[in-house]
Amino acid sequence: MNDLIRWTASRTAAAIASGEVSAVEVTRAHLDRIGAVDEKVHAFLHVDAEGALAAAERVDAKRAAGEELGPLAGVPLALKDVFTTRGVPTTCGSKMLQGWIPPYDATVTRRLKDADVVILGKTNMDEFAMGSSTENSAYGPTGNPWDLARIPGGSGGGSAAALAAFEAPLAIGTDTGGSIRQPAAVTGTVGVKPTYGGVSRYGLVAFSSSLDQGGPCARTVLDTALLHEAIAGHDPMDSTSIDAPVPPVVEAARAGDVRGLRVGVVKEFGGEGYQAGVEQRFHEAVELLSSLGAEVVEVSCPSFTSALPAYYLIAPSECSSNLARFDAMKYGLRVGDDGTRSAEEVTALTRAAGFGPEVKRRIILGTYALSSGYYDAYYGQAQKVRTLIARDFAAAYERVDVLVSPTTPTTAFPIGERADDPMAMYLADLCTIPSNLAGNAAMSLPCGLAPEDNLPVGLQIIAPAMADDRLYRVGAAVEAAFVDRWGHPLLDEAPAL
Ligand code: GLN
């Protein structure tokens, strides 16, 4: 394996800036790696070798001209296929958008390009970001690089797998109920769901608009922070974008210190349904925090136990409205338009053929929950639960600075195991959903391998809205302590592909 592909993003950027390697060499090494392993991993739906090399050449030309390079200039990245990319296919893992070439860039895409990040291609995902395993992709599943017969998490399994397979040092995901953090946890990588409104949703194909949030993924906390800074900040094209300075995430990741910090262990996350090895590694991480000088207390957030049912009313309700745009008239798939059928018939045939079973299930559920007579009983109740969850968080933050929990109840499960059991699949997001409902910031980072299966376990850190920097301060301290203890980053333990 070419050593270069194991470098962190920050080291890669420094090597490009100093002339130790060219951006084109770095890009070629990653394209070669994709060529060598992606047939097995299937992290990518589309590789844009030409566009990536052209971007890398521009970075090398800038350097040759003596222009100053940004902190991630020339570093390759894998972009979840839910962000529009001008001239490059965007499918959202759905047949509905097969062959669609967007005429515009999402704000995240644009900011990556402005930062001279090299976009290698688009990554596999559960259809329209609905799922926890990437098995709902219309283009086939992605394998977990730790064990290709297991899921890489979802919906952003492709982005996480690309990192863990050393196909890219940086990736972008989106997190509506856990789709950045859960894949990070089960692949031994780092993922952050920024504060809702912290990263623009313009050009992010909508699933559930009040929950969706794009965010950074990488193999280290510092790399994640550098990417966070590159994509975050106010965007007038997104009405929910927060017009305030981006929290000092890079500074916090460089500082990495938990002394005197008050850490709350959420009592409701644990016990029945949690894998013993996951709980064990989580408790060790809590002990570690305490040994590093944090003040650990237990906190109770009783409404969190209702987060999952509330989410599975709110998210489908919003998706039933958002996905109405796929009507076969404006763009994307069109089925049965042979001159004999009405527009309504063409729309119905297109939706029947274009959407997969999970997307249909949610549209039906959401349409039902929003229908008159049921609205108050379902959607209205779920919104009340959402308020209670936000209150639980507010009460907890009166006592602590951050909250911690396992990111997921179990390690990566075998492909196929939960594919026909939506309820079992939904449970994967038990610990991640509350922070989406309340708009808080949250991170998952590796905290070891579960003893029973030698698969990665994620530690989740949750911080109040606009205190994203706390995630990085804590995450960097934990990461450094683990690397000291293990002698290397966790991914060094991963079996070779
Ligand atoms: N797994 C959750 C769901 O299926 C979360 C998905 C996401 O965050 N995009 O809705």
UniProtKB/TrEMBL annotation:
NCBIfam families: gatA (TIGR00132). InterPro entries: Amidase (IPR000120), Amidase_CS (IPR020556), Amidase_dom (IPR023631), AS_sf (IPR036928), GatA (IPR004412). It comes from Allostreptomyces psammosilenae. This is Glutamyl-tRNA(Gln) amidotransferase subunit A. It comes from the Bacteria. The keyword Ligase applies. It catalyses: L-glutamyl-tRNA(Gln) + L-glutamine + ATP + H2O = L-glutaminyl-tRNA(Gln) + L-glutamate + ADP + phosphate + H(+). Its EC number is 6.3.5.7. Residues 25-471 form the Amidase domain. GO terms for biological process: translation. The lineage of its organism: Bacteria, Bacillati, Actinomycetota, Actinomycetes, Kitasatosporales. PROSITE patterns: AMIDASES. Keywords: ATP-binding, Ligase, Nucleotide-binding, Protein biosynthesis, Transferase. Allows the formation of correctly charged Gln-tRNA(Gln) through the transamidation of misacylated Glu-tRNA(Gln) in organisms which lack glutaminyl-tRNA synthetase. The reaction takes place in the presence of glutamine and ATP through an activated gamma-phospho-Glu-tRNA(Gln). One of its GO terms (cellular component) is glutamyl-tRNA(Gln) amidotransferase complex. The active site is at K80 (charge relay system), S155 (charge relay system), S179 (acyl-ester intermediate). Heterotrimer of A, B and C subunits. Belongs to the amidase family. GatA subfamily. GO terms for molecular function: ATP binding; glutaminyl-tRNA synthase (glutamine-hydrolyzing) activity; transferase activity. The gene is gatA.
